[in-house]
C-alpha cells in the first residue's frame, strides 16, 4: 500500500475550492451593482424578463471570459505576487478616479454659478 497522496483527490479538491471561491466572490461583488440595477430597470421597462436575463447572462459570461483569458495570459508573463499587487493598485486607482469624478460632480462648474 502506497503512502503517497492520490493526485486525483487533490485535483478534485482544488477544482471545488476554485469554483466555490469564484462563485461566491463574483456573486457577492455583483449584488446591487450597476449591472444588476440596469437589468432590473430593463426588465421592468421591456416587460420581457427572460430576454433581459438571457442578454445580461451572455454579457456577464462574455466579460468574464475576457477576464479569464487576460488573467491566464498575465499569469504566464508575471509572478502571482506581482499580479496580485498590480490588481490591488488598479483597484485603488480606479476607486480614486471614481471618487474624484463624484466630487467633481458635486462642485458646480463656473458656468453654472449665477452672475452677481
What does this structure look like?
With 116 residues, this protein is mainly alpha-helical. It has a domain of 75 residues. The protein contains four helices and no strands. Helix 2 packs antiparallel against helix 3. It is found in: Membrane. GO terms for molecular function: metal ion transmembrane transporter activity. Its main location: membrane.
Set down the secondary structure blueprint.
Blueprint: H1 7-30, H2 34-46, H3 49-77, H4 80-106
Comma- or semicolon-separated keywords:
116 residues, flat, single chain, 80% helix, 4 helices, GDT1 family protein, mainly alpha
How far the N terminus sits from the C terminus, by CA atoms, comes to 92 Å
- Rg (CA only): 22 Å
> So what's the oligomer here?
single chain
Report the biggest beta sheet as strand number plus sense, adding barrel if it closes. none
Q: Give the total of beta strands.
A: 0
**Principal-axes shape call:** flat
Helix and strand pattern: HHHH
Amino acid at each position: 500500500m502506497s503512502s503517497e497522496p492520490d493526485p486525483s483527490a487533490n485535483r478534485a479538491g482544488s477544482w471545488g475550492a476554485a469554483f466555490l471561491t469564484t462563485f461566491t466572490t463574483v456573486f457577492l461583488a455583483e449584488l446591487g451593482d450597476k449591472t444588476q440595477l440596469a437589468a432590473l430597470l430593463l426588465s421592468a421597462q421591456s416587460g420581457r424578463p427572460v430576454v433581459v436575463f438571457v442578454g445580461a447572462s451572455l454579457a456577464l459570461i462574455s466579460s468574464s471570459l475576457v477576464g479569464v483569458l487576460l488573467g491566464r495570459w498575465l499569469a504566464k508573463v508575471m509572478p502571482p505576487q506581482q499580479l496580485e499587487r498590480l490588481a490591488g493598485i488598479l483597484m485603488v486607482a480606479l476607486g480614486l478616479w471614481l471618487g474624484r469624478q463624484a466630487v467633481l460632480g458635486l462642485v458646480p462648474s463656473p458656468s453654472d454659478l449665477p452672475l452677481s
